């Protein structure tokens, strides 16, 4: 039985991009709420043009330690979201170990910079493969298990403010994150009959390795007018948002408190999308 202190007690959550940043934060927050965790991360280079360091096996191991520190079980593997068969095998292992799957958080993503007609075909394809096809792979892996469990459930796809309000300098990223919205809304309709809700979250300016990528400033130096597309938002903004604030929204969407919410795009942006 769930309690206000542990609203996800007895449930199992699958989280991608779990080694650090938002992914780690989501794992720990869901575990604190009572869920056991299934976690994946590539733990290595995934896109040649990223301006920040890739995640590591040591970082995934730290996520495991933190989840276990919350008193929950965790099954963690080094799997790239582009590896559909790897994800399917892990879901099967999770079903065997935990007996169910209730929550999926498709969090893994990459961001790099360049004008659309100047980026390489490789740069375009890698971002689309991770950010959009990677989400589709995750959905294809987890949805049959969630339907089989028969408990309804919640899928949370992490898009971006740039998945609603396109910005210059990373059009390939915007395209991928807009795509996640379409995937989310279609899947919400298809899974409604099974009591499975599907929503997307749209963060902006988050304190993660991706959010601290200094290469974006090179783009602003070359094209100063681009900066006007990145307004600070309506609320006071002194720094990038702590990933835990995004995790609070993910927890709400994962829990029964959001039982009426599906096919929704939830902003986590301090009002940026309205400015």
Automatic annotation (TrEMBL):
Tagged with keyword NAD: yes
Regions crossing the membrane: none
Xref: CDD domains: SDR_c
PROSITE patterns xrefs: ADH_SHORT
Key words, A-Z: NAD, Oxidoreductase
Protein name as it appears in the record: Mycofactocin-coupled SDR family oxidoreductase
Family according to the record: Belongs to the short-chain dehydrogenases/reductases (SDR) family.
């Amino acid at each position: 039985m769930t309690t206000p202190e542990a609203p996800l007690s007895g449930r199992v959550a699958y989280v991608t991009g779990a080694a650090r940043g938002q992914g780690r934060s989501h794992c720990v927050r869901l575990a604190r709420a009572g869920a056991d965790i299934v976690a994946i991360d590539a733990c290595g280079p995934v896109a040649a043009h990223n301006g920040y360091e890739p995640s590591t096996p040591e970082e995934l191991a730290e996520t495991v330690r933190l989840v276990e520190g919350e008193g929950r079980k965790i099954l963690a593997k080094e799997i790239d979201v582009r590896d559909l068969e790897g994800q399917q095998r892990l879901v099967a292992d999770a079903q065997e170990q935990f007996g169910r799957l209730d929550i999926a958080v498709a969090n893994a993503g990459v961001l790099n910079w360049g004008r659309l007609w100047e980026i390489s075909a490789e740069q375009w394809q890698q971002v689309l493969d991770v950010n959009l096809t990677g989400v589709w792979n995750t959905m294809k892996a987890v949805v049959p298990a969630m339907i089989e469990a028969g408990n309804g459930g919640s899928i949370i796809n992490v898009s971006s403010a740039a998945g609603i309000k396109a910005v210059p300098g990373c059009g390939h990223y915007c395209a991928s994150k807009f795509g996640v919205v379409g995937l989310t809304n279609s899947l919400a309709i298809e899974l409604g009959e099974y009591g499975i809700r599907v929503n997307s979250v749209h963060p902006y300016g988050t304190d993660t390795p991706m959010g601290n990528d200094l290469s974006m400033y090179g783009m602003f130096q070359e094209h100063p007018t681009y900066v006007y597309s990145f307004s600070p938002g309506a609320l006071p903004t002194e720094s990038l948002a702590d990933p835990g604030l995004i995790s609070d929204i993910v927890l709400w969407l994962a829990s029964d408190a959001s039982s009426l919410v599906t096919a929704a795009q939830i902003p986590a942006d301090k009002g940026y999308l309205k400015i």
